[in-house]
Automatic annotation (TrEMBL):
Residues 12-44 form the ChsH2 rubredoxin-like zinc ribbon domain. InterPro entries: ChsH2_Znr, NA-bd_OB-fold. This is ChsH2 rubredoxin-like zinc ribbon domain-containing protein. It comes from the Bacteria. Pfam families: zf-ChsH2 (PF12172). It comes from Streptomyces showdoensis.
Length: 123
């Protein structure tokens, strides 16, 4: 018989939180901007993203940015994220979600691939 005093891991503490902004006037969503890109309003309300998105097309990047991709989030804004996944599987159109416990202050959000990816030949 097992004892009933198993320690519950508080997973909620590691829940990733990605805040974006929604313009109160035209409802455009944006990320870390001072002005609404559509109407120029400064009246931006912070909202919490569900953390799901799709990798977007990127143009021109340096070697240091090789794992940084623009991710089009479900709420409509685009944020550059570090994508944690096998390079051969990371490409535009792939669905990703925010990885738990990886969003530090001032750091890039980290996302993981939603789909199961074959790891053959990865390591
Ligand atoms: Zn606006």
């Amino acid at each position: 018989m097992r004892s009933g005093t198993a320690v519950l891991v508080e997973e909620s503490a590691a829940e990733p939180e990605l805040h974006f902004q929604r313009c109160r006037w035209c409802h455009t969503t944006t990320f870390q901007r001072l002005l609404c890109p559509t109407c120029g309003s400064t009246d931006l309300a912070p909202e919490l993203s569900a953390g799901e998105g799709v990798i977007s097309v990127r143009r021109g990047f340096t070697a240091a940015e090789a794992d940084l991709w623009p991710v089009h989030m479900a709420e409509g804004f685009v944020v550059r994220c570090r994508v944690d996944g096998p390079p051969h599987a990371v490409r535009p159109g792939v669905r990703v979600r925010l990885a738990p416990g990886t969003l530090g202050a001032g750091r890039r959000p980290v996302v993981r691939l939603c789909e199961e990816v074959a790891l053959d030949g990865w390591f």
